[in-house]
Design a protein that fits this description.
54% of the residues lie in helices and 12% in strands. It is of the alpha+beta class and 249 residues long. Helix 4 crosses helix 5, helix 6 runs antiparallel to helix 7 and helix 7 packs across helix 8.
Length: 249
């Protein structure tokens, strides 16, 4: 499609809604040259301190727009939260997006901060969290091998894929991803093991055969200490230690 059209739409939106913004970055598929006719617009909008930090979805000229609005202080808080979540979504927007507006170098400043975060990589998972994920993945692989009901098998397979991916991301100290970014970042993180996880999940969804996914996830487990069953123990500290959620806290 003609990429000029969504880019010009984004420029018109900025002029209409954010005339006093300090910086505006167009990110997502449009900035990366992958936009389709139905692609939304992802805009990071830096406003003066005293303004509102928020996320909002609107429709502009028939196109869905995701707005990430923040002050300077709000941007630093969001960067810190994204880093703690090991996703770096906003950092990626600033580092790879198309600059639509830059007053007095604000976009350049924000991009430098984003690029520094991306270079530093995510914080390592705490050992207790890794252990809990190992335990949860070990249990899920047992369930996956025993599952007879197709719906249960698919549900367990989804958990296996995401938990093994989390462990692989942490092993390589790379940024994690969710949704469509999960396969993209898995392939970037580990072209062999990440691709094997995705292929195993795809085969299971198509044929119902879990063997390839079990093998791929087992290889990830071996990287991070192996299966964990007996010996796993947690002391109650006022918070449920959720294996399913994989929080470890």
């Amino acid at each position: 499609m003609d990429l000029e059209r969504p880019i010009e739409q984004a420029r018109r939106l900025v002029r209409d809604r954010f005339p006093d913004a300090l910086a505006v970055i167009l990110a997502g598929s449009t900035a990366l040259g992958r936009a389709t006719a139905s692609s939304d617009l992802d805009l990071a909008v830096l406003v003066e301190d005293g303004g509102e930090t928020c996320r909002e979805t609107i429709r502009f000229e028939g196109r869905v727009v995701e707005l990430f609005v923040h002050t300077r202080a709000g941007l630093e808080d969001l960067f810190a939260a994204d880093a703690a979540a090991r996703r770096a979504v906003l950092q990626s927007m600033y580092a790879t997006g198309l600059v639509l507006l830059d007053r007095e170098g604000e976009a350049v400043r924000a991009r430098a901060l984003a690029e520094a975060d991306l270079r530093n990589g995510p914080p390592a998972l705490e050992p207790e969290i890794v252990e809990t994920k190992r335990y949860g993945l070990t249990d899920a692989l047992d369930d996956l091998g025993d599952a007879v009901d197709p719906a249960e098998r698919l549900a367990v397979a989804g958990f296996v894929l995401t938990t093994a991916a989390d462990l692989l991301f942490d092993h390589h100290r790379v940024w994690a991803g969710g949704g469509k970014w999960l396969p993209r970042r898995l392939r970037e993180a580990d072209g062999v093991r990440g691709a094997a996880l995705l292929e195993g999940h795809l085969r299971l969804c198509g044929s119902g055969n879990p063997a390839a996914l079990i093998e791929a996830a087992s290889q990830v487990l071996d990287l991070v200490g192996g299966p964990l069953r007996e010996g796993y123990r947690r002391v109650w500290q006022g918070v449920i230690d959720s294996v399913a959620a994989g929080t470890g806290r």
